Amino acid sequence: MAPDPPSRPRLLPHAVVVLDAGKAHAMRETYLTHVRRTLEEIRADGFYKTERLIRSPQSSAIDLAAGRRESTRSMTMAARKRTPLST
Protein backbone atom coordinates (compact mmCIF):
# COMPACT_ATOMS: atom_id res chain seq x y z
CA MET A 1 0.00 0.00 0.00
CA ALA A 2 1.37 3.44 -0.98
CA PRO A 3 1.83 6.08 1.73
CA ASP A 4 -0.57 8.99 1.78
CA PRO A 5 0.71 12.06 -0.08
CA PRO A 6 1.87 14.86 2.22
CA SER A 7 -0.88 17.31 2.99
CA ARG A 8 -0.53 20.89 1.87
CA PRO A 9 -0.10 23.48 4.58
CA ARG A 10 -3.25 25.44 5.24
CA LEU A 11 -3.10 29.03 4.17
CA LEU A 12 -4.27 31.38 6.84
CA PRO A 13 -6.15 34.52 5.86
CA HIS A 14 -4.13 37.69 6.22
CA ALA A 15 -5.44 40.89 7.66
CA VAL A 16 -5.83 43.65 5.13
CA VAL A 17 -5.53 47.23 6.32
CA VAL A 18 -7.07 49.87 4.14
CA LEU A 19 -6.03 53.44 4.78
CA ASP A 20 -7.65 56.44 3.28
CA ALA A 21 -5.41 58.48 0.98
CA GLY A 22 -5.05 61.35 3.47
CA LYS A 23 -3.85 59.12 6.30
CA ALA A 24 -1.45 57.25 3.98
CA HIS A 25 0.02 60.56 2.81
CA ALA A 26 0.43 61.78 6.40
CA MET A 27 2.17 58.54 7.41
CA ARG A 28 4.52 58.80 4.42
CA GLU A 29 5.40 62.40 5.25
CA THR A 30 6.01 61.50 8.91
CA TYR A 31 8.35 58.70 7.84
CA LEU A 32 10.23 60.91 5.36
CA THR A 33 10.63 63.61 8.00
CA HIS A 34 12.11 61.00 10.36
CA VAL A 35 14.55 59.78 7.67
CA ARG A 36 15.64 63.32 6.79
CA ARG A 37 16.20 64.21 10.44
CA THR A 38 18.22 61.02 11.00
CA LEU A 39 20.42 61.75 7.97
CA GLU A 40 21.00 65.31 9.19
CA GLU A 41 22.15 63.94 12.57
CA ILE A 42 24.48 61.45 10.87
CA ARG A 43 26.03 64.25 8.78
CA ALA A 44 26.32 66.57 11.78
CA ASP A 45 28.11 63.84 13.77
CA GLY A 46 30.62 63.37 10.92
CA PHE A 47 29.60 59.83 10.02
CA TYR A 48 28.34 60.57 6.48
CA LYS A 49 30.70 60.00 3.59
CA THR A 50 29.96 60.87 -0.01
CA GLU A 51 31.08 58.66 -2.86
CA ARG A 52 33.89 59.80 -5.13
CA LEU A 53 34.01 58.65 -8.74
CA ILE A 54 37.45 57.37 -9.71
CA ARG A 55 38.49 57.94 -13.34
CA SER A 56 41.90 56.23 -13.27
CA PRO A 57 43.05 52.68 -12.53
CA GLN A 58 43.61 51.90 -8.87
CA SER A 59 47.13 52.74 -7.70
CA SER A 60 48.92 54.80 -5.05
CA ALA A 61 47.42 57.95 -6.58
CA ILE A 62 44.07 58.19 -8.35
CA ASP A 63 42.33 60.69 -10.59
CA LEU A 64 38.88 61.65 -9.37
CA ALA A 65 35.97 62.59 -11.61
CA ALA A 66 35.96 66.03 -9.96
CA GLY A 67 39.32 66.67 -11.68
CA ARG A 68 41.53 66.23 -8.61
CA ARG A 69 44.39 63.77 -8.19
CA GLU A 70 44.56 62.22 -4.75
CA SER A 71 46.99 59.95 -2.99
CA THR A 72 45.38 56.85 -1.54
CA ARG A 73 47.81 57.12 1.39
CA SER A 74 46.38 60.51 2.36
CA MET A 75 42.85 59.06 2.15
CA THR A 76 43.85 56.16 4.39
CA MET A 77 45.46 58.48 6.95
CA ALA A 78 42.37 60.72 6.97
CA ALA A 79 40.14 57.70 7.53
CA ARG A 80 42.30 56.59 10.45
CA LYS A 81 41.97 60.00 12.09
CA ARG A 82 38.15 59.79 11.80
CA THR A 83 37.85 56.19 13.04
CA PRO A 84 38.66 55.56 16.70
CA LEU A 85 40.78 52.49 17.36
CA SER A 86 39.08 49.74 19.30
CA THR A 87 40.79 48.62 22.48
Secondary structure: elements and pairs:
Elements: H1 21-44, E1 61-63, E2 69-71, H2 72-82
Antiparallel strand pairs: 1-2
Describe this structure in words.
This protein is 40% helix and 7% strand. By secondary structure, the protein is mainly α. The chain has 2 domains: 19-48; 50-87, no CATH class. The longest helix is centred in the middle third of the chain and has 24 residues, at 21-44. The relative contact order is 0.06.
* Strand order in the largest sheet: 1-2
- How helix-rich are the residues, as a percent range? 40-55%
Structural class comes to mainly alpha
Strand count, sense and barrel status of the largest sheet are: 2 strands, antiparallel
Ends distance = 67 Å
What portion of the residues fall into strands of 2 or more residues? 5-15%
- From the spread of the alpha carbons, the general shape counts as flat
Low-confidence stretches: none
Radius of gyration, rounded? Answer: 26 Å
Per DSSP, the total helix count is: 2
- Count of discrete domains: 2
Number of strands: 2
Helix-strand sequence: HEEH
Integer average pLDDT: 77
